[in-house]
Design a protein that fits this description.
about 0% strand, about 90 residues, mainly alpha, about 75% helix, single chain
């Protein structure tokens, strides 16, 4: 992997787009799980007999979503560090 060319604005924009693509599916899945989890926790107050189950499922979705988002951030940071190291 070679060091990115950051000599002009166009090259910087291309590298930023490249970085945004790293871990995109994990970030989107994590965001979706966080939204579903928040809705489930909010709706659990109106769920009647299933309130506790829905609330626990919502908290599990929130935890999994945040874990996916943190993993995506880790992947992108690791990718950026590898790209910034100049390899011979």
């Amino acid at each position: 992997m070679s060091k990115p060319d950051l000599s002009n604005d166009e090259a910087i924009a291309r590298y930023r787009a490249e970085l945004r693509a790293v871990g995109r599916s994990q970030r989107l899945a994590g965001f979706g799980l966080v939204i579903v989890g928040a809705i489930a926790v909010f709706a659990s107050s109106r769920a009647g007999d299933m309130a506790q189950t829905l609330q626990m499922g919502g908290y599990a979705a929130l935890a999994a979503g945040w874990a996916l988002m943190i993993a995506a951030i880790f992947l992108r940071t690791r990718y950026h560090r590898r790209r910034m190291r100049e390899m011979n």
